Amino acid sequence: MKTKIYSLLLACSTLSLFAQVGINTATPTATLDINGNAKVRTTPAAPAIAGYQILGINSANSEVSSIDPLLIYAAANTNSTVYAAKKTTGISLLSLGLFPSGFRAVNFLAAERTIGSASLFSDTDNTYTIPSAGVYAVSFTFRYGTGLQASILANNPGVGIVRTRAGVATTIDNRPFSGANLILLSLTISETTVNSLYSFQAGDKISFGLTGSTALDAGLLGASVATFYIYKISN
Q1: Is the separation of the CB atoms in 188 and 177 below 8 Å?
Q2: 10-residue mean pLDDT series, the chain (235 residues)
Q3: Three-class DSSP category at 6
Q4: What is the DSSP string of 165-192?
Q5: Neighbours of 210 (CB within 10 A)
Q6: Where does 35-112 show beta strands of DSSP type E?
Q7: Is 122 exposed, middle or buried (0-12, 13-18, 19+ CB in 10 A)?
Q8: For 233, which DSSP code?
Q9: pTM for the complete prediction?
C-alpha cells in the first residue's frame, strides 16, 4: 500500500514540474500566471549594476522580462533633439515674405548636418523643427568672407535667429558684426556668434541667417562659413 502511495505522489510531483499554475485565473498562459498584485517583503540592495538585471513588465501582454540596466541608462541619456550643421560652400541668403524686415536665412541643408536626425530639418524652408516643447540651447556662428573686411557697418549687419510659430516669424536673438579701427584701416570683424537658452513650443521652426545684410557683397558669400547647433535641455 505504501508503495502505491509513494508512486502516486511521485507521479503527481512529476506532472507539476510541467504544469502551468494560475493564481486568480483558471486559464494560466505562463508557468506562473498571477492575476492580481504581488508583494515582496524584503529586497536586498545590489552592490553594483554589473551582474544584475532589472525586471520589467511588457505592457502588451503583462509578461515579466529581465532588462540590462545599461539599456535603461542608455535610453535615459539619449537626446533625440540634438542637431548640428556646418555649411562651407554654396552659401546663399534666402528672403521670404514672412521673415522680419532685413533678415535673410542661410540655405542650410539636411545633408550638411554633422550630428542628429535628418528628419529634424527641412530642406523645403531650411529650418529646424522643434520636436517637443521645452528649453533649448541654441548657437549660431557666421563668418562673412575671410572674417575681416573693409567697413560694412552701414546697415549694421550681423547674425540672427528667427522663430516661426503659426505662420508668424519673430527674431528671437541677434548680434551685429563689430568694427575695429586699426591705424589707417577701418575694418569690420565680420564673424560673430549668438547663443543662449530659448523656450520653444512643439512645431516651432527655427531659421538661422543674417540681419541688415542687403549691403553685403554676394561674391564674398562663397568664402563664408556658417554653423549652428541646437538641443533640448529641459521641459
Answers
A1: yes
A2: 52 58 86 84 80 82 82 75 96 89 94 96 96 98 80 76 97 86 64 95 97 72 92 95
A3: helix
A4: ETTEEEEEEEEE-EEEEETTEEEEEEEE
A5: 24
A6: 54-57, 64-67, 83-87, 93-94, 103-106
A7: middle
A8: E
A9: 0.70
| Residues 190/143, Cβ–Cβ less than 8 Å | yes
Neighbouring CB atoms inside 10 A of 48's CB total 7
Cell numbers placing 98: 514672412
Strands 64-67 and 54-57: antiparallel
Residue 45 phi, psi (nearest 5): -75, 135
Q: Is 72 left (phi over 0), alpha (psi -120 to 50) or beta?
A: alpha
Cell of 219: 561674391
List of domains in the chain: 1-40 (no CATH), 48-78 (no CATH), 83-234 (2.60.120.40)
Alpha helices, H only, the chain: 2-16, 69-76
How long, in residues, is the chain?
Answer: 235
State the DSSP code for 118.
Answer: G
